[in-house]
Amino acid sequence: MTKHYSPVHHGGLTNHLPMYQQALKALNSSDNLILERSETYIKRVELKDLEAINARLTDFEKAYLTEVSNYRALLADKSVEEVLKEFLLGKEAAMASGLFHGMIRLAFAAKSGDIEELARALGYFEAIAEPMTIECGNVTSEPKESWNRLMAQRMTMAIDFTDLAITGKVAQILENRDLMDFVTEIEVVEDTEKRMAFIFANWYMKTRDFYVLHVLTGYQALVALKPYIGHFDQWLKAYWEMAQIFSLSTTERLPIIKISVSPWDEVMTEAKAMTDVHDVKLFYACRDFYERYELKIFNKVAHILSHKYWGRGHH
């Protein structure tokens, strides 16, 4: 187990290290490469070792450590499945906490099988959990069409965001009735889970937006945690609503480009040159989604990501 670094840095930004390491491992990166990238990341964002003798802990970090201690004890007494099912019960309103990172880190921890990392992930999610309330009156059975109508409405509006942080943007969007009247609740049918994945990936292809990226990686985490979630339909409905809100922060549209589907072995080789934590996590999500749904769009997104690193060499 690595040192116990703070789950945040620079005033509240998420520490991506445990997720980054797990994603690199899943992409068949060598131990030396994972160590090298980890050390670079630790230095770049100046992660704090919470167990260092001279560590000065914030109130948030103290609260987080208390939660981690509680979950260590719980995991020593109950099975992982029991703990996760109890923890996630009724948590759907808090899915977007920390730009979905509470849920993302938890999904990675659950997959890793590392009990200590699971306690830390549970502690982090608990420490940042903040319910989000979205009121929308329209129910859609055609999610792609309703999504496009919402985004078309957004393009007609010039929103002067008074707070550039995503929490401020979200709060302002939720108060904008001209937009919220187009936000829909989704009718869950047999293929809704797959259709949502396609819509989010397609929107990322069109925008390459940072927050849409998190909508996509957050959704992968939700799907990965499905075995531990009761009433999953309710989580899909809640996620659909949150995804709409977070995707409204941008009006950026990129030119449509034709991308061929490449063999995954080829794309995976290129992926080993990736250094950005978000690119690595998104590539991992695309690979997982492709294996689940066999949708070619995830190969294309992965191809776009790997293309950024062509010519940089591989390990």
Descriptive overview:
The structure is a single chain. The chain has 315 residues and is mostly helical. Helices cover 60% and strands 3% of the residues. It folds into three domains: 8-128, no CATH class; 138-247, no CATH class; 264-307, no CATH class. The protein has 15 helices and four strands. The strands form two sheets. It has a two-stranded antiparallel ribbon with strand order 1-2. The chain has a two-stranded parallel sheet with strand order 3-4. A hairpin with a 3-residue loop joins strand 1 (8-9) and strand 2. Helix 1 packs antiparallel against helix 2 (31-45), helix 1 (17-26) crosses helix 5 (101-112) and helix 14 (277-293) runs antiparallel to helix 15 (296-307). The two termini are 24 Å apart.
What does this entry show, briefly?
The protein is mostly helical and 315 residues long.
Strand order, largest beta sheet: 1-2
The profile of the biggest β sheet is: 2 strands, antiparallel
Shape: globular
Uncertain residue ranges? 311-315
Domains, number: 3
Estimate the helix proportion, in percent: 55-70%
Strand content: under 5%
Question: From the alpha-carbon coordinates, what is the Rg to the nearest angstrom?
Answer: 19 Å
CA-CA gap between termini: 24 Å
- What structural category do the secondary elements indicate? mainly alpha
Number of strands: 4
Total DSSP helices: 15
